[in-house]
Amino acid sequence: MVDVLVIGGGNAALCAALMAREAGASVMLLESSPKEWRGGNSQHTRNLRCMHDFPEDVLVDAYTEEEYWQDLLKVTGGNTNEALARLVIRASADCRPWMRKHGVRFQPPLSGALHVARTNAFFMGGGKALVNAYYRSAETLGVHIRYETPVDRVELDGDRFVAAYSGEERFEARTCVLASGGFESNREWLREAWGQNELGEWPADNFLIRGTRFNQGVLLRALLNAGADSIGDPSQSHCVAIDARSPLYDGGICTRIDCVSLGIVVNRNAQRFYDEGEDFWPKRYAIWGRLVAQQAGQIGYSIIDSKAVGRFMPPVFPGAKANTLEELASQLQLPEAQLVETVNRYNAACKEGTFDHTLLDNCHTENLQPPKTHWARPIDSPPYYGYALRPGITFTYLGLKVNDRAQVHFGGQASPNLFTAGEMMAGNVLGKGYTAGVGMSIGTAFGRIAGVEAARASLQIRNEHA
User: Fold this and answer.
1) Which CATH code for domain 237-392?
2) What pTM value is reported for the model?
3) CA of 148: how far to CAs of 33, 38, 135, in Å?
4) Strand 264-266 and strand 300-304: pairing?
5) Are 431 and 80 in contact (CB under 8 A)?
């Protein structure tokens, strides 16, 4: 029997396994995917949002606890547990030395269109390099890793963990950390969560999955069915507007369309439906998937002109390109007259000031609904470009309720030996919305907490049975 069983293979799971092993516990980690696909959604990440009171190593200027909290408060609309959120924020300030000790390397500060040089630390080689570094360190420390071992159920004695099952194979442990992700790859559960819209459509049928195909939510469902306390709305998720031509799974960061704030977005009727310039893109990119999901056919179109080129991270696929709006509409299969009318109405409403895509500038619209609050410039300089958008689900927010020790709750009571981290509990902090890098902050903070607490609990259990 091992001391700590970790179920999952991404950032949160690995942080838990490493911390538990460092604390002296014997650890087994069960990853559902083959070795070549290990790492869950963490393999597609790029950075970690970090609090810091002054410039340090790869972080410039300062990003205080209060500013971080206000950013999180804004994107969640207050739908967050402040105590747990602040725990994550404070933990993000001092995790980098530990990450470096386990082989993670960071890039020098980035500048440019993403506005995150000050707030986020970027991994050298991206999330795949981070995951590989953690696996190498785990193997060196003696963590027993099993691939292609999907856990489908757990055995509980009341609120106490006893064992986990993968098929008929039983894994007994003194404590357990659940870190096997959400249900974003489970199409039936997505359909259940989103239901039908007024047009009789099932929006979830048109969702693409930015991350791993292995996050089916099987273990999450099993725990909820067993009476674990839930947190979060099943229809809420990290949902991004991505290229409609993206693959069904594992498209990752390169499928994102980042020119939204520099132009307009229209639905299939060529009508705008939201303020494209509401705030900086890293604070707003994760609302656009949900906005597109709420449109007929779950599709939108980002329209820009040549003035925007070079001011955003280019997508992996080239967009439609035309010298006239009518020609662009034809390529995108949009109603030509309506697109021209929408653009003309928008252009007429633009009150140009001093354009600066790196600031919340004073270029805005007047007498236009919906408004465009910043970066509003007429779309009048051909060639014109258009990108079809679909909702891209990264991870879901329905999860398990926890406390500051990462303990799973049953009927309001904390389990003595069952813990959770990562996507399975992110809804405690993210009721809705997202800001770049906070998912990795949550996974790192609670993964490390869960590992320490599981190791401590396992030692106590050992002593009780000595």
Assistant:
1) 3.90.700.10
2) 0.93
3) 5, 9, 15
4) antiparallel
5) yes
Residues in the chain: 466
CA distances, 200 to each of 53, 195, 203, 296 (Å): 51, 9, 9, 10
Beta strands in 208-304 (DSSP E): 208-209, 230-231, 237-243, 264-266, 300-304
The residue extents of the domains of the chain are 2-182+217-235+397-464, 237-392
- The upper half-sphere exposure of residue 111, i.e. CA atoms within 13 Å in the direction of its Cβ, equals 2
Alpha helices in 240-388 (DSSP H): 281-284, 288-293, 325-332, 336-349
Whole-angstrom distance, CA of residue 455 vs CA of residue 22:
9
The rounded distance, in Å, linking the Cα atoms of 422 and 400 is: 10
pLDDT score at 463: 87
Contact between residue 143 and residue 28 where contact means Cβ atoms under 8 Å apart: yes
Domain over 2-182+217-235+397-464 is classified CATH 3.50.50.60: yes
Q: At 115, which amino acid appears?
A: H
> CA 215 to CA 211: how far, in whole Å?
9
12: nearest Cα among 399, 414, 333: 399
Q: 191: which 2 tokens?
A: 């359909």
DSSP state of 314: P
Helix axes 336-349, 325-332, angle to 10 degrees: 130
Q: Report the percent of the chain where pLDDT is more than 90.
A: 92
Rounded to whole angstroms, how far apart are CA atoms 260 and 354? Answer: 19
Collapsing DSSP states into helix, strand and coil, what is residue 7? strand
- Supply 103's token pair: 């082989």
What Å distances lie between residue 298 and 132, 216, 292, CA to CA? Answer: 36, 22, 5
Beta strand 384-396 with 237-243 is antiparallel
Report pLDDT digits (tens) over 185-239.
Answer: 999 999 999 999 999 999 999 999 999 999 999 999 999 999 999 999 999 999 9
Q: DSSP per residue over 385-428, as a string?
A: EEEEEEEEEEEE--EE-B-TT-EEEETTEEEEEEEE-GGGTGGG
